[in-house]
Structures are given as structure tokens and as C-alpha cells.
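Regression check, protoporphyrin IX containing FE case 133:
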Amino acid sequence: MRPVRWSGKQRETAYERWGGAPFFEALVDRFYQGVENDPRLRPMYPDDLADSRRHLALFLGQYWGGPADYDALRGAPRLRLRHAPFTVGPAEAEAWMEHMTEAVESAPMEPADRGELLEYFAMAARNLVNSGP
Ligand code: HEM
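Current build output:
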């Protein structure tokens, strides 16, 4: 017997609302197009960006309520630790945000969602700064 759902529909996650995995894949593709052509950031990344794309898209999908595929593939995110090998100063964080802002601004989504996503990225990028003043 199915349980009675007296509270109506389950609350939809941002992951579902924005379009699931394809949304995050498109966002990350757009972001890496920017990184690929940015001399401030490109040298930090591996020559082949395929894994970088996959990992970031899975991480973001998981963060916003999708399946725990990032954890399954990579283990716990521990992003500060994973960024420790790189010099992330205010300039690098700003360059990263520039490309992510461009990607978010070109994504098809409601203005309130866009704002929420941009705020999250700004907070996360600030939090990963590990060098400089
Ligand atoms: C603040 C500026 C940032 C810089 C300069 C930066 C740079 C990098 C670099 C060089 C890598 C390694 C390349 C790779 O193996 O993929 C990396 C990996 C990664 N970054 Fe960032 N990042 C920044 C901010 C962020 C933010 C804000 C997030 C999340 C919201 C993030 C999420 C990730 C993830 C999930 C990985 C892959 C970790 C793994 O599984 O190995 N990064 N980042």
C-alpha cells in the first residue's frame, strides 16, 4: 500500500528545477571555455580538461541536490584541501568568478535562481583563497 501524501508534492530540488545533469554540464562547459583562454588560470589546470569538467559538473550537481555521483567517484569533496596544491590568491579567485559569472549569466534560469547560484559561487570562491593578503 502506498503511504498517503497529505503534504502534497515533495519539494523539488534546485538540481531538478534547473534541468538536472545536462544543466550542470552545460554550465561547466561554458565556464571552461573561459578558463581555456585565460592566461591567468589555464596554466593551473591539466592539459586535458575532460576530467576537470566532469568533476566540477558532478560536484555541483551533488551540491544542489542531485545524486551523490561526485562522492562515489572522488570521495568527500574537501575542496580546501584539494585546492591546497594551487596558489589561489584574490586575483585567481576573481578570474575564476569572472568566467563562472559569465557562464551563470548565459544559463537559462529564473533571475532569483541565478542570484542564488552567483551568491553561492562568490562565497565558495572566497572560501578557497589560500594565499595573498
Ligand atoms: C577561487 C578560484 C579557484 C581556482 C583558481 C580553482 C582552481 C582549480 C584547479 C587548478 C583545480 C584542479 C584541476 C582539476 O583537477 O580539475 C580545481 C579543481 C576543482 N575545483 Fe576549483 N578553483 C577555484 C574555485 C572553485 C570553486 C568556487 C569551486 C566550487 C564551487 C571549485 C570546485 C572544484 C572542484 C570540484 C574540483 C575538482 C576536485 C577533484 O575532484 O579533484 N573550485 N580547481
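Comparison notes: The chain has a mean pLDDT of 94. The longest helix spans residues 111-127. No diff flagged against the previous build.
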